[in-house]
């Protein structure tokens, strides 16, 4: 059974940093690209970044140069290091395979505000 558990969100001031983690259980980790998505109130969920098992990464333009995705295959965990956070980064962040399937977890809230 697949389970995705996100953590690491919180309240941070503009310009601050957070590191999100996503613990993956089930057999999806080794054979799929893993990504981070986010959803703000009133907006559709959008892809933030993803990383394949071979290390290929891709970032949305609005986070390039600020966010870094990584994965620890031994721990079946995906990370998202977020630096230089902006108020517009405020959202619930989720991880999932790419393209996404119906494995959505509860997400982790990130709030960027002074």
Query: How do the strands of the widest beta sheet line up side by side?
Result: 2-10-9-4-5-6
| Share of residues in helices | under 10%
Termini Cα gap: 40 Å
Query: What does the overall shape look like?
Result: globular
Q: What is the string of helix and strand elements?
A: EEEEEEEEEE
User: In DSSP terms, counting alpha (H) and pi (I) runs of 4 or more, how many helices?
Assistant: 0
Q: How many E strands?
A: 10
Identify low-pLDDT runs: none
Description:
The chain is an all-beta fold. 0% of the residues lie in helices and 50% in strands. The strands form two sheets. The protein has a six-stranded mixed β-sheet, with no helix packed on it. Strands 1-3-8-7 form a four-stranded antiparallel β-sheet, with no helix packed on it.
Task: Summarize the entry for a quick read.
The chain is mainly β. 0% of the residues lie in helices and 50% in strands.
């Amino acid at each position: 059974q697949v389970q995705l558990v996100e953590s690491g969100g919180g309240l941070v001031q503009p310009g601050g940093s957070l590191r999100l983690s996503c613990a993956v259980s089930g057999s999806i980790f080794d054979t799929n690209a893993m990504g981070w998505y986010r959803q703000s109130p009133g907006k559709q969920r959008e892809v933030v970044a993803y990383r394949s098992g071979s290390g290929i990464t891709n970032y949305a333009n609005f986070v390039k140069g600020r966010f870094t995705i990584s994965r620890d295959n031994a721990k079946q965990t995906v990370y998202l290091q977020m630096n230089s956070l902006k108020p517009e980064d405020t959202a619930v962040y989720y991880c999932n395979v790419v393209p996404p399937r119906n494995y959505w977890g509860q997400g982790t809230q990130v709030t960027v505000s002074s």
